[in-house]
Amino acid sequence: MDVQASIASFAVVVGFLTITPGLDTALILRTSLLSGRGHAWAVALGIQAGTLLWGTLAGAGLAALLAASSLAYEILRWAGAAYLVWMGARMLWQSRRSGEEEAAEAERPRGGRWQAFRRGLLTNLLNPKVGVFYVAMLPQFMPHDAPPALMGTLLAGVHVGEGLLWSALLIGFTGLVRGWLRRPSVRRGIDRLTGLVVVGFGLRLAVQQS
């Protein structure tokens, strides 16, 4: 398989993965609806930075430790589960605010863009399933004569490009309906729904076996 065929085949696989509803989509939608486009793009860039790093590490063989070492996988799995449960629980706690508190909160910024970027980055990097996905998938799309680290980065770049395109569609859609969805009662509902989704992903990660 040559480089162009490898890239095209990988693009199809991760394209379906990208548009499948999941944690990344939920975080981007929530951030765009409640904090605006700038923060949503910061979250999206953080997520994609994590994807690019996982692809590079997998191409270099470093992420294979997750597949070879059950201890390394378990440490990362429990750290990721704890982070997701904490983040989701925080959203659920914030949804308990009254309408007056919610209206006052809407007038204040919800953290900086660096904080949003870090949230997306940590969500991706603390998910060992992303690393295992790249360890399992990249060898199938690696031409024999291609440098592994470089090819891993290139394929991850394809994944990042598709992820950014999907993020642009999500953020553009929320821009059309943000006025209605930023009502206090709707904002609380978004926090509750997203909090439950994030906690669910955290619990699912905690109970799954390596």
UniProtKB/TrEMBL annotation:
Q: Where are the transmembrane segments?
A: 6-29, 41-69, 121-142, 154-177
Q: Which InterPro entries does the UniProt record give?
A: LeuE-type
- One Gene Ontology molecular-function label: amino acid transmembrane transporter activity
A Pfam family the protein falls into = LysE
Q: Which UniProt keywords apply?
A: Cell membrane, Membrane, Transmembrane, Transmembrane helix
Source organism, top-level taxon: Bacteria
The protein's topology relative to the membrane is: Multi-pass membrane protein
Keyword Metal-binding among record annotations? no
Q: Which GO terms describe its cellular component?
A: plasma membrane
**NADP among keywords:** no
User: What's the name of the protein?
Assistant: Threonine/homoserine/homoserine lactone efflux protein
Species name: Streptosporangium sandarakinum
Taxonomy of origin reads: Bacteria, Bacillati, Actinomycetota, Actinomycetes, Streptosporangiales
